[in-house]
Amino acid sequence: MGNVIAVVNHKGGSGKTTTALNLAAGLTRYSDITSSCLIIDMDPHGCASSALLGKPDGEAPARSIFDVLRRAITPQDGITSTVFDENIDIIPSSPSLDSISRTQITDRLLKVTQGLASSYGWIIIDTPPNLGILTQNALVAADYALIPSPCTGLSVSTLHQLRAVIEKIQERQNIWLQVLGVLVNMKDGRTDLEKHVAKQMRGEFKHAVFKTMITNNIKIEEAPSHFKSIYSYDSGCLGASLFRDWIKGELMRRHKLLEKKKGDKLEAINQAALEAQKS
Ligand SMILES: Nc1ncnc2c1ncn2[C@@H]1O[C@H](COP(=O)(O)OP(=O)(O)OP(=O)(O)O)[C@@H](O)[C@H]1O
Ligand SMILES: [Mg+2]
Asked: Which numbered ligand comes closest to the C-alpha of 21?
């Protein structure tokens, strides 16, 4: 079974890239599935690419996901190793990705992840802050949607729109897409607001909202500009322990549960096909 996670939220600055980076590094360290991980950077701004490749100026890479999607190179040829972590590879972004936004092709990335799934324990896709073609490609290619969301009242209406898009893709293009969860990020200690926002988020995504909330933590903000995950940058800080405990605990339990759900669904589909053949 695939383990492709699209990190999505069309609200800008919600923590997608930060989560994608620390999730990838955490999975290679703490998950019980093969330790290698591939990040595909689908955001034309390329923040994940800069952090992983050690290029703060965002200089365009020689080979990118843009070249892969327009089939100028193979997916394998788009892969580059990172300075961030020896177990994490990347297919970097390029500013040219914006031109794909003007097409209507939504299943190109799926072909790429299908071809690479057996080479990596996990594939994480970072996405731009909109619900356009690039994010749709990520959701069509993914087994799971992970939604980082800031802890503010305004974020709830964004989640409502996002849920509608996810449901549409589940109905029409990717019946295997499941919501891995909503991860509240940048919690700032205002307990009443947090309780209120978490309750509203549960109204949209029910039990998919993780109990773990990532606090506003300066080390989390600093780590990518040193081209490091939070665990390498300061393994003892609160941000590192929050991400680590979330991955080892809630995330792994949720993943097992959803994998089983997917297995049961596959079995039911196969069973129905067999019965249709007999009759
Ligand atoms: N838990 C946190 N504590 C402190 N700063 C954080 C935290 N999470 C994210 N940030 C900071 O908030 C900013 C936005 O985060 P990030 O770039 O991950 O969001 P994004 O959703 O990827 O943004 P965009 O929509 O522009 O791609 C960054 O400067 C990041 O360092
Ligand atoms: Mg980002």
From this structure: 1
